Amino acid sequence: MMNLTVLNDTDELLNALAEQICESAEKAIRDHGRFDLVLSGGSSPKKLYELLASEKFKNRIEWNKIFFFFGDERFVPAGDSQRNSLMAREALFEPLNICSENIFEVDTTGTPQESAEKYWQDILKHFNGEEVEFDFILLGLGDNSHTASLFPHTSVLKETEASMKSIFVEEVEMYRITMTAPLINQAKEIAFLVFGRDKSEAVYHVLKEKNVSAEKYPGRLIDSDNEKVHWFLDQAAASKIV
Q1: At what angle do helices 10-32 and 43-52 cross, to 10 degrees?
Q2: pLDDT recorded at residue 44
Q3: Of 134, 156, 152, which is closest to residue 142 (Cα–Cα)?
């Protein structure tokens, strides 16, 4: 049975995901003293981050034991409004006074390739010789079925190693830095947050359609293990699968 949470009310959906993040954080901190959380960008997660920083949730988590990473980033300067990390900083890090040492942002001062390699080295240093296994990765899904910056028909889809890669995405005319699918799939938990009827086709292609390729619908590259992959959908996004 697919691990789906489908709710009509957006606030209820965000609340359910926030609850899961809190429970996962509590367990990880209890088990190994920290919670390694990978964030995604976009408008939907912004509402989630604001909720986590609200009175309802901010005291549920030991924030000094959370380490924040990004599944992908646009290759733009540090202060650029398009950066995923800037949105997360304004919605989550600043309201909660998160220590800068707990935030791993992508350094875009070098070339795209250098940025990807430096971020990967920062991740390896954080895991200190252990397998890179994030506790929780939050993902979105584009209307073309991309997730992180794994876009259709791009070379990064063929990567077989867990790492960070740079890729020029012609569709958006921009370099992106992204986790590879094998790196994402090593996570202990993965959650997709998807809103809106405009995403319903993409959800169908990834979760239900038979005999279609991940080359065309990259979300299909992400592990379908129901034990660790959970889809949080509003009724509109789920309309073609339920």
Answers
A1: 60
A2: 82
A3: 152
Q: Which pLDDT value is given to residue 1?
A: 57
How far is the C-alpha of 169 from the C-alpha of 220, rounded, in Å?
19
The answer to whether 118 and 107 have CB atoms below 8 angstroms apart is yes
The H-or-E segment that residue 46 falls in is helix 43-52
**According to the model, what pLDDT value does residue 226 have?**
81
Query: Between β-strands 229-234 and 4-7, what pairing exists: parallel, antiparallel or unpaired?
Result: parallel
Domains of the chain from N-terminus onward? 6-234 (3.40.50.1360)
Q: pTM value?
A: 0.97
Low-confidence ranges of the chain (pLDDT < 70): 1
The separation between CA 135 and the C-alpha centre of its own chain, rounded to angstroms, equals 12
H or E segment at 49?
A: helix 43-52
- If you ran DSSP here, which 8-state letter would residue 150 be given? B
Cα 180 to chain centroid distance, Å, stands at: 12
